[in-house]
Amino acid sequence: MSMAPAKPVIQLMRLNAPRASLNTLASSFRRTFALNNQSSSPPSSLSLLQSSAGAIHICKAQQSISWLNSSRAYSKAKDPAAATDTAAPLLSKLFPQTAPDADSGAEQERKKREEDEAKENERAWKRMKLGFAIFGGGGFAAALWGIYEFGKPEVDAEGQTIEDEFTNKPLVQQYLQRMWKSLHYYQKMIQEPSREKLLPDPLKHPYVQPRYTLVLEMKDVLVHPDWTYQTGWRFKKRPGVDHFLQECAKDFEIVVFTAEQGMTVFPILDALDPNGFIMYRLVRDATHFVDGHHVKNLDNLNRDLRRVS
Fold this sequence. Notes:
Elements: H1 6-15, H2 22-38, H3 45-77, H4 80-94, H5 100-151, H6 171-191, E1 212-216, E2 223-228, E3 232-237, H7 241-248, E4 252-257, H8 262-272, E5 280-282, E6 288-290, E7 293-295
Parallel strand pairs: 1-4, 4-5
Antiparallel strand pairs: 2-3, 6-7
Helix pairs in contact: 1-3, 2-3, 5-6
């Protein structure tokens, strides 16, 4: 569209004629037609020259009018409002998110997503409250069962209630205090050894009691534990352990003291010591549970520690 006004401009430059106004062109037309009407004789050279000049003026007028129209079209194209109207469809094609329809659609989609999120949060809160209610009800029921189970009085073989120090107290207080005593008993059973004397009293004459006591750890002393994906747990016997036990048994009372479970220790010691050189086996129930660790206390060994090694 911008190349259309170029042709009349180029033609005017080739004619080397100045741009005339519309009033001047109209005056030229009137003079030309007046001359033609006054003379009915054959045209002379002067009239021919005047006619040719009028034709030139008409051509110039047509060129000027076309140039003015093209200029007006160009000025309209440069109008900001028109440019905006023309550029809007182009921007909408290049950037769909800038289009008014796209903005309204995105806004509706955002509102719908927010509404869905609000509904989902409300449903999650309801589920959470239901879970809290179920958990709280289950905990309350478990507490009542524990009070009844650990707080009920003991009965003998005939089903008769055995009286204790809580029998004459109110019923609720009886159950609560018995439950507390039972919990304290189980806590003590876990934290302290199962008996005060871990070993029996020394043998009297005529039995032979070794003069010294040798306390050994099973793991990493007599055997070494090893675990692989193919074999699982295996315990490897230390080289020369058979000769070691045989020689120590002549002068020592051999005691194996470990923090492992008895179900793990006893089968290993049965295979390790078929001759019975190990006289006593102390496992986890003979230890003290302190700060998450099983501690072996030799004070409960029931032996003179001056003769213990």
